Amino acid sequence: MNRRLAALVLPALTFPSVVPGLLARVTVLLFCFFCFAGQSLAAGTGYVFVSHERSHTVAVLDPSKGHEVIRTIDTCNRPRDMHFDQSHERLYVACGDDDVIEVIDVAKLEVIDRIETGRSPEVFAISPDGESLYVSEEESSIVRQIDMETNETLAEITTGPEPEGVLLTQDGARLFVTSEIADMVHVVDTATGKVEKNIVVGTRPRRFEMNQDHSELWVTDELAGQVSIIDTENLELLHQLPMVPPGFRPSEVTPVGLDLSADGKTMYVTLGRANHVAFVDADTREVLDYVLVGSRAWGVAASKDGQFLYVANGLSDDTTVVDVESRSAVKSIPTGRVPHTVVIDD
């Protein structure tokens, strides 16, 4: 028995008449102690998870321990995109070379389930009601809808070649999908599974992020070196924002990842081979700064407290921690081979 618990229990057992009501409280404490002794931490750990395409692992970083890697979880081959369920009790990981999505128990930090998909799952989204997965299958040119209760396929939505980015509206009524080869964004009615509109953007569109009020959809155009911004109500292209860090040619800038700050003011965009992350004012669309990170900046995630930004660097095999206030890299952490996606359990 630990010392704090003993300090409560022993007086109650020795002098029950002196401390009326304490025994009832001790009973509850004992119940909680023995029920949860030996169990893992619950979700909401604050941990940072990084997937790695070539070491076939997910690294777990603990910010409270100086961003130390506290666990490396073995996965199926080529883990890429990752998302938490609504409770943050489970983390879903798309494994592109094994055609599955694996499920990690966030408390135990271990793989507990596997969901079969089609060929080469890359990016996916979880429906707002928590009932469906929408998975882009790069080699099949479809988005597969999967029932999260039964793991069965509900629908196959035909897209342009090499679909990647997948994002749902807040009500789940529309699904946005990028086609890397067709250079367009498909707008899908999820009730019918039909494409209702195609929006031409820049060359090789990759990933999505919404602004704070969800009126704008930001799309990275990797080989155009820009971000396309779409009006989500009228489904029209509003603006295209080029990004060129000092000392780089436009052809060297390959935007891929995006994330919005918790306060909705700043959009963070990784610039791939340009080895920087751009800080962009989400309202004015002005590029505020470029921050040097690792080689081939790919996935990005911003902490909810607004303090840190985490960038997965695919060629330097590390994850950069960026201090948001100073706009500078403060740490580079070797995490595994070819880091891809970063998510935070906060």
From TrEMBL:
Keyword terms of this UniProt record: Signal
Domain YNCE-like beta-propeller: 48-300
Highest taxon of the lineage: Bacteria
InterPro entries: Host-pathogen_enzymatic-act, N2O_reductase_N, PQQ_b_propeller, WD40/YVTN_repeat-like_dom_sf, YNCE-like_beta-prop, YVTN_b-propeller_repeat
Gene3D superfamilies listed in its UniProt record: YVTN repeat-like/Quinoprotein amine dehydrogenase
PANTHER family (alphabetical): DIHYDRO-HEME D1 DEHYDROGENASE, PROTEIN NIRF
Name of the protein in its database record: YNCE-like beta-propeller domain-containing protein
Species: Hydrocarboniclastica marina
